[in-house]
Write a structure and sequence with these properties.
Elements: E1 6-9, H1 19-33, E2 38-43, H2 53-66, E3 75-76, H3 81-94, E4 97-100, H4 104-116, E5 141-144, E6 151-156, E7 160-165, E8 173-175, H5 183-193, E9 198-202, H6 206-219, E10 225-229, E11 232-233, H7 249-254, H8 259-268, H9 281-287, E12 298-299, H10 302-315, H11 318-331, H12 339-352, H13 359-365, H14 367-370, H15 379-384, H16 387-401, H17 407-420, H18 425-437, H19 445-452, H20 454-465
Parallel strand pairs: 1-2, 2-3, 9-10, 11-12
Antiparallel strand pairs: 4-5, 5-8, 6-7
The protein binds glutamic acid (GLU).
Glutamic acid binds next to loops.
Length: 466
């Protein structure tokens, strides 16, 4: 199978990219990419009333943000409707489907009668074995001639062997009387034509797999490998809903999670490789397999998400991280960086990225770069600038004016000044942080002084001492 793997993600464009959909796409992407295979994208837009171009655009944006690139063009299911109809007619020709002239009223009457008798209301069309000579001159649907006895076995890579009794499935319609294909037919025809070898999707589609497998059999097509993955649950183990927090992939982008951390987290959500928690996408591609997918629904765990995101931020290349931060500023509707700020951010990035779990946290640490004089201070910073501290800052500025602005030189000046006043360095650091960042919690004073430079440092100290 290696070298000839084709997977696909097949969302219906009726809303944003749901976090569960994002994970399904990710699993398909990892599985294909790790095997030199192809990952295809098909938009299932046959439901014309519920499908919108805005939803398609949102899904593509979500995938792009997650870094899940697909091969070839985006395929529209709706545009393939003629091909779907062609296959329905091929099934007719093969005798695995038939023309059904039953009207809606007749079908409803059948169901009502079956229910009254207490039997299972699977519609059995009287046209299944009818002589074509008896066909009336009126519109017909094409129904699959489904096996009535025996069982259909789905050999699922996650769920195991799933057995469905054929008597519980009706002769489903594959082509409606208005000539439009049904969803069930469209999925099979598309997956077949696209050469899909592995169908990895939510387990809400497991029942569909039995019906779809019948269509493969009816056309004598080879059935793909099935892998139906359990849905994602909230932290409380209940079905995921809005009250658990963000559901849309793009919402996570706006909250400032880095894409690499999000990928890592979603990969671990329902899949495991030993006890590996933090890993790169390259490692995930190498390791990802269907065996590692759990059978129980995975639970969202925001602490873990943040923890992984922090590790990915710290491990990022500085320039790449700045680039991603700028994309975050744009989607979060925050002011873009000026050229000057970009330069300072890059200079300070190696310390900024330590212990920031999200972009908002990184921006909070970068406040000393992004702020302008006079630096706004919070309450703790105001407190740190008591009269004694202001005096010390005032005595510090002439020395800083003569400094060579290396870390060693600054260290000598600051520890020397602290010692002269009989203070530990920490006591001096608080007013310095307050003066430079307007906060008492900030990156190290040396990092800040080196990044913003001599003139700006002295100006801020003078502001604070005044
Ligand atoms: N369009 C379906 C959905 O959005 C997915 C169908 C499939 O993966 O086979 O749930």
């Amino acid at each position: 199978m290696t070298g000839h793997v084709v997977t696909r993600f097949a969302p219906s464009p009726t809303g944003y990219l749901h976090i569960g959909g994002g994970r399904t796409a990710l699993f398909n992407w990892l599985f294909a990419r790790g095997r030199g295979g192809k990952f295809l994208l098909r938009i299932e837009d046959t439901d014309r009333e519920r499908s919108t171009p805005e939803a398609t655009a949102a899904i593509l944006r979500g995938l792009e943000w997650l870094g899940l690139d697909w091969d070839g063009d985006v395929i529209s299911q709706f545009e393939r409707r003629d091909r779907h109809a062609e296959v329905a007619h091929a099934m007719l020709a093969r005798g695995t489907a038939y023309k059904c002239f039953s009207t809606r009223e007749e079908i409803e009457a059948f169901r009502a009668e079956a229910e009254a008798k207490g039997s299972y209301a699977v519609f059995q069309s009287p046209w299944r074995d009818a002589d074509p000579a008896t066909y009336p001159d009126r519109p017909f649907a094409i129904r699959m001639k489904a096996p009535r006895e025996g069982e259909t076995v789905i050999d699922d890579q996650v769920q195991g062997r799933v057995v469905i009794k054929n008597e519980t499935l009706d002769d489903m319609i594959v082509l409606r009387s208005d000539g439009t294909p049904t969803y069930m037919l469209a999925v099979v025809v598309d997956d077949h034509d696209m050469g899909v070898t592995h169908v990895i999707r939510g387990d809400d589609h497991l029942v569909n797999a039995a019906r779809q497998q019948m269509i493969y059999d009816a056309m004598d097509w080879s059935v793909p490998v099935w892998a139906h993955i359990p849905l994602i649950h909230g932290p409380d183990g209940k079905k995921l809903s809005k009250r658990h927090g963000a559901l849309g992939v793009e919402e996570y982008q706006v909250m400032g999670y880095p894409a690499a951390g999000m990928r890592n987290y979603l990969t671990r959500l329902g899949w495991a490789h030993g006890d590996a928690e933090f890993f790169t996408s390259e490692q995930a591609m190498e390791w990802f397999d269907l065996k590692g997918i759990g059978r129980a629904p995975a639970r969202l765990d925001f602490k873990k998400l943040e923890n992984l995101c922090g590790q990915h931020i710290a491990a990022s290349d500085d320039a790449a991280l700045l680039h991603e931060l700028e994309a975050y500023l744009a989607v979060a509707n925050l002011p873009a960086l000026s050229e000057h700020q970009r330069g300072l951010m890059l200079a300070g990035m190696s310390s900024l990225k330590e212990r920031a779990k999200t972009f908002p946290e990184l921006l909070e640490k970068a406040r000393y770069i992004l702020t302008t004089r006079p630096v706004a201070r919070d309450e703790a910073a105001e407190k740190a600038l008591d009269p004694v501290s202001r005096g010390i800052l005032a005595s510090l500025t002439p020395r800083l004016r003569n400094a060579s602005w290396t870390k060693e030189d600054l260290e000598a000046i600051l520890t020397g000044t602290a010692a002269e006043h009989g203070l530990g360095f920490g006591k001096l650091a608080a007013p310095l942080r307050a003066a430079l960042a307007g906060r008492t919690v900030s990156p190290s004073v040396y990092d800040m002084m080196l990044v913003i430079g001599q003139d700006e440092t002295i100006a801020r100290l003078e502001d604070a001492a005044a």
